[in-house]
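Batch queue: ligand-bound targets. Current item pairs a single chain with zinc ion. No template structures supplied; prediction is de novo from sequence plus SMILES. Inputs echoed for audit trail.
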Amino acid sequence: METSGAAPDLLVVADRVVTMDPERTVLADGAVAVAGDRIVDVGRADDLRARHPGAAELGGPGRMAVPGFVNAHQHLTGDRLIRSAIPDDLESGTAIFSWAVPAHAAHTPADDELSATLGLVEAVGNGITFTVEAGTVAHPDRVLAAFDTVGVGGTLGSWGWDVEGQPWAGTVSEVLERQRHVLDLTDGHPRVDGWITLVGHDLMSDELVVAASELAATAGTGLTFHLSPTDSDPRRYLERTGSRPLVHLGRLGALGPHVLVGHGVHLDDAEIDVLLRHDVALAYCPWAYLRLGQGVTGAGRHADIVERGGRVALGCDAENAGDAVDVLRTAALAAGLAKDTRLAPERFGAHTVFELATIAGAAAIGMDHEIGSLEIGKRADVVLVDTTTPEWVPASTDPVLQLVWASDGRSVSDVVASGRIVVRDRTCTTVDLAALAEQAAEHHRRLVLDAGLPVRATWPTR
Ligand SMILES: [Zn+2]
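Prediction returned. Tokens below.
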């Protein structure tokens, strides 16, 4: 392979390097050379050592290198500090309006930063180096600080909805002004891009979504919003507009390749045609739909959309909806659902979902020029998987099959994000998690009181 001119700071060395380049090359005894925040060389470890003498090494025998994973839908605030506190036997409206919305409303700027830091530490520990925030951040400057502290990449917006009587709501012009502020805040940032982010559902006026889409297109950035995780959005749009959501939004001119729709579980044939015609991407969060009982097993068409050439990425959603911030766990579920719901074991295997976790997911969010594969010139987001643990014994000749079905984020040992070692020997190097734990417990207690959340312990603690 070609090398670039910069002198490397680091060689990431592994028994196998799963590059996810266009040929899907897997290198035996390979290495990735990193200089600054870029990949400058990829090839056989011995060749790279000869070409780059004296470079420090990470990894070695018993390690496999893969690209950093993309999480295309993650709430970085709100749920984190009340993780596993929202019971899993509530109706969806109760979970949202008695729990999630008051928790968000009671968030202080410090809660936002702490919450996002904890979420990103968990994410990177499971190999996620790029996170699309899902559109519910009240204090984007503090969430940007969390991205900086942890050292990973992502997209960031500001809470966007124009509904009356709800926290963080605003008029159309106020909501857009906040989004512009985020674009300014992230201007020139090496790892975090400002995106226009709306809550979505039926909680955005036609005027807001059209203006938001125009703003994103003009700024050359993305727009994301929630739509149709349940059949509630289709019903409401039909009542209000006479059309189903994506048909309506297409007619408004709000759709395009810069749009990433969160969920899209309940789409009919006409909506899927609209989605494909406008090259709109989907963030698919199957654990959330199972946890919340939203009907993905009956209604979900994400695998069909991928098979028809649509752009789909995987997401982990929130800590009370899907819960684990682990894209590999999500990938296995996406494969299993595609097979099981059609009684079709031959379709949608580990390799397809691994593409969604890496290069295809990067393409869905418009970032495949920068992340998603181990290729020269790309951002140095490299994950090392420890293949000495029981789930890897014996090693298969097909590492992706084994990684998706036999393992998950637990196998991740080291992570390089933008050229920096952010996880070493399963420990985050940029954040002292133990020190944050005490602070998190205190913020949790205060948030529950301030938001008036009806927390309960189901079984007695003695
Ligand atoms: Zn969401």
